[in-house]
C-alpha cells in the first residue's frame, strides 16, 4: 500500500488535491477578509457582529440544502473532471463580484458593498455544492481500495491547511490586496483543474431530476434507510451543527470576551485549521488505512471536554485596558493565552479524528456509481443542520445568551455524536 503522503506524487491524485486546496484557500481568504472587515471596521455592537457571522454562515450553506441532490446526480451521470472545470471557471466570476464588493464597501458604500459580498458568499455556496460531492466521490475511481481512507484524510487535511493559509492571509492583507489575491488564486485554480484526470460515469446513465424539493427528498430517502449511512450522516451532521455554532461565535467572542484584535481572531481560526489537519492525518495512521469508527466515540467526547475547558478559560480571561485590544504578542505571552491555545488545538485535533473516517464510510460502503449522490445526501442533511446551528446562535443571542455559554451547547451535543459513532462502529466494524 502506498503511504498516504505518497499519493501526492501521483497524477491521479495531485491535481485534484491542489485544485481543492486552492478552492478552499480562496473561499476562506474571501470570507475571512469579509468577516474581519465587518467585525472590526463596520459594526460596533457584539450582537450585530454575531448575527452577521451567523447570517453569512447560513446563506453560505443554503445551496447545499437546495442543490446537493442535483449536484450528486450530475456528478454520477457525467465526467466528474469536466464538472470540476466548469465549477472552477464559475469561481473566477464569483470572485470578481466578491472582490468588487470589498472595494466598494471600503470606499464607503457599505450597503452596496456588503450586498455584493453576501451575494458572492451565496454563489460560493453554490460553487462548493457542486464541487463538494466530486472531491470525495472521485477518489474511489482514481485510488485503490486501501488508499481511499488515506486519500480522504489528505483531502480533509489539505482543506483545513488551505483554511489556515486563507485565514492567515486575510488577517495580514489589506482589503485591496485581498481583492486582487482572490482573483489571482481563482485563475491559478482554473489552470490546475485542467490537469485532473478524467473520471467518466460508471453504471447506467441517470435521468436527472431538476426539481430541488423532490430530488432532495428522493436522494435522502434512498440513502438514509441504509443503517450504516444513516448513522454516519447523522454523526457528521451533529459535528457540523457544532461547527456552525463555533464559526458564528468565535470572532465576536475573541473581540468582546478575550478583548483581542483581529490578529488574534485570525490566529484562533488558524489553530482550528492546523488541529483538524493533524487529526485527519493522525486518525489514518491509527487505523492503518482501514475505514473504521472505533475511535469516534472517544474522539468526540474528548472534544466536548476541551470545549468546556475553553469556555471556563474564556470566562476568567483578564480584559485588556478600556479602549484597547490585545494584539497577538500580548495574547501569547499571557499564561491564560497559552492554555486557550492548548484547548483550541485539543478541540480541533479530536474533531478531525472524529469526522474523517465518517466521510470515508460514505465513499467506500456504496458502489462507485453512487458515491457522489451519497455525499450529496450527506451535504443536504449537513447543511440543514448547519442552518439550524446558525439559527440557534441568532435566537440565543437575542435571548441574551453569551458566546461563552453557547459553548456548553456544543459540549452537550458531543455525547450524542459519540453515541451515533458507537452505533456505527458496532454495526460495521
From TrEMBL:
Pfam families (alphabetical): MFS_1
PANTHER family: MACROLIDE-EFFLUX PROTEIN, MAJOR FACILITATOR SUPERFAMILY (MFS) PROFILE DOMAIN-CONTAINING PROTEIN
CDD domains with a match to the protein in the record: MFS_MefA_like (cd06173)
Protein name as it appears in the record: MFS transporter
Alphabetic keyword roster: Cell membrane, Membrane, Transmembrane, Transmembrane helix, Transport
UniProt-annotated location(s): Cell membrane
Main location: membrane
Highest taxon, organism lineage: Bacteria
Naturally occurring in which organism (per UniProt): Sphingomonas immobilis
Lipid bilayer topology: Multi-pass membrane protein
Membrane-spanning ranges: 21-40, 52-70, 82-105, 111-132, 153-172, 178-197, 229-254, 266-287, 299-317, 337-362, 383-401
Amino acid at each position: 500500500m502506498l503511504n498516504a503522503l505518497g499519493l501526492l506524487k501521483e497524477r491521479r491524485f495531485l491535481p485534484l488535491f491542489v485544485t481543492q486546496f486552492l478552492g478552499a484557500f480562496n473561499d476562506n481568504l474571501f470570507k475571512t477578509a469579509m468577516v474581519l472587515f465587518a467585525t472590526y471596521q463596520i459594526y460596533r455592537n457584539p450582537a450585530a457582529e454575531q448575527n452577521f457571522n451567523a447570517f453569512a454562515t447560513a446563506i453560505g450553506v443554503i445551496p447545499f440544502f437546495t442543490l446537493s441532490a442535483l449536484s450528486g446526480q450530475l456528478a454520477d451521470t457525467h465526467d466528474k473532471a469536466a464538472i470540476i472545470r466548469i465549477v472552477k471557471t464559475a469561481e473566477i466570476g464569483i470572485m470578481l463580484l466578491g472582490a468588487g464588493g470589498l472595494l466598494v464597501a471600503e470606499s464607503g458604500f457599505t450597503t452596496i458593498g456588503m450586498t455584493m459580498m453576501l451575494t458572492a458568499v451565496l454563489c460560493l455556496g453554490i460553487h462548493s455544492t457542486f464541487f463538494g460531492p466530486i472531491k470525495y466521490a472521485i477518489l474511489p475511481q482514481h485510488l485503490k481500495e486501501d488508499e481511499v481512507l488515506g486519500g480522504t484524510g489528505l483531502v480533509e487535511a489539505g482543506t483545513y491547511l488551505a483554511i489556515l493559509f486563507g485565514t492567515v492571509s486575510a488577517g495580514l492583507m489589506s482589503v485591496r490586496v485581498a481583492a486582487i489575491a482572490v482573483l489571482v488564486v481563482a485563475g491559478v485554480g482554473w489552470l490546475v483543474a485542467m490537469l485532473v484526470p478524467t473520471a467518466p460515469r460508471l453504471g447506467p446513465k441517470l435521468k436527472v431530476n431538476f426539481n430541488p424539493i423532490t430530488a432532495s427528498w428522493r436522494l435522502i430517502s434512498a440513502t438514509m434507510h441504509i443503517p450504516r449511512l444513516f448513522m454516519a450522516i447523522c454523526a457528521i451532521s451533529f459535528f457540523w451543527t457544532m461547527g456552525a455554532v463555533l464559526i458564528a461565535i468565535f470572532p465576536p467572542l475573541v473581540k468582546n470576551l478575550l478583548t483581542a484584535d483581529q490578529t488574534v481572531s485570525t490566529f484562533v481560526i488558524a489553530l482550528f485549521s492546523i488541529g483538524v489537519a493533524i487529526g485527519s492525518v493522525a486518525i489514518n495512521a491509527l487505523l492503518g488505512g482501514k475505514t473504521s469508527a472505533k475511535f469516534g466515540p472517544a474522539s468526540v467526547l474528548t472534544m466536548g471536554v476541551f470545549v468546556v475547558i475553553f469556555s471556563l478559560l474564556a470566562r476568567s480571561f483578564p480584559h485588556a485596558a478600556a479602549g484597547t485590544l490585545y494584539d497577538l504578542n500580548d495574547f501569547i505571552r499571557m499564561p491564560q493565552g497559552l492554555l486557550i491555545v492548548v484547548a483550541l488545538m485539543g478541540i480541533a485535533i479530536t474533531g478531525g479524528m472524529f469526522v474523517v473516517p465518517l466521510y470515508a464510510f460514505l465513499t467506500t460502503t456504496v458502489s462507485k456509481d453512487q458515491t457522489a449522490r451519497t455525499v450529496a445526501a450527506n451535504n443536504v442533511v449537513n447543511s440543514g443542520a448547519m442552518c439550524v446551528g446558525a439559527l440557534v446562535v441568532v435566537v440565543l443571542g437575542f435571548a441574551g445568551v453569551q458566546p461563552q455559554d453557547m459553548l456548553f451547547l456544543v459540549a452537550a451535543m458531543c455525547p450524542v455524536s459519540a453515541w451515533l459513532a458507537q452505533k456505527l462502529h458496532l454495526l460495521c466494524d
